[in-house]
Amino acid sequence: MRTVLFILFINTLLLSYDVTSMIKVLNSPYKDIYPNKKELYARNIWDMKEFEAKLYMGAGNSSNIGPAQNAGPLPLISYDPSTKKFERVSVIHDEQIDIIKTFRNRLYIPGHDATQSWDYANIYIKEAGKELKKYRNIKDGLHVYDLAFYKDKIFAALGTKRGAAVAISSDNAKSWDIRYLGRYRIYSFLEVDDRLFAIKFFPSSKYLQKMPAKTKDLFFSVAEYKKGKFEPIRDLTSKDFFPDTNNIEIASQKIIRPVKTSKGSIYIGAFLHNDHQSLPFGTYYVQILKNRPICKKVTIPNNYDVWDIIKKNNDIYLLSYNRMRKAVAVLHAKEDDLDSFKEYISFKSSSFARSFEYMEGIFYFSIGSEVKDPKKFDYNEIDKDTGKIAIFDTRYITN
Question: What is the pTM of this model?
Answer without folding.
Answer: 0.94
